[in-house]
Design goal:
The chain is mostly helical. It contains 3 helices and no strands. The chain has a domain of 41 residues. Helix 1 packs across helix 3.
């Protein structure tokens, strides 16, 4: 019986040097392209997933944390 092998859907982890991160950040700060376009140009991947913002925090371009909305909400007519 032939064994079937499935490719993993996990993405490979990419590591960027500080110089590469700064290149992405500087391209974004110039304002000529969106974060998604810059990410695609550097990596060839279509989904950026807030990595450039993460790099900006790591390298000191941003000091404040982004306030996230809480996930909880009130249910007034909740059945018992």
């Amino acid at each position: 019986m032939e064994e079937k092998r499935f490719k993993s859907k996990r993405q490979t982890i990419r590591y960027f040097r500080d110089k590469q991160k700064r290149g992405m950040i500087n391209g974004y700060l110039k304002g000529s392209h969106s974060k998604h376009q810059i990410w695609f140009d550097f990596t060839g991947k279509p989904r950026e997933m807030e990595q450039i913002l993460k790099f900006m925090r790591q390298l000191g371009y941003l000091d404040e944390q982004v306030m996230k909305k809480p996930l909880t909400f009130l249910m007034e007519n909740k059945p018992h």
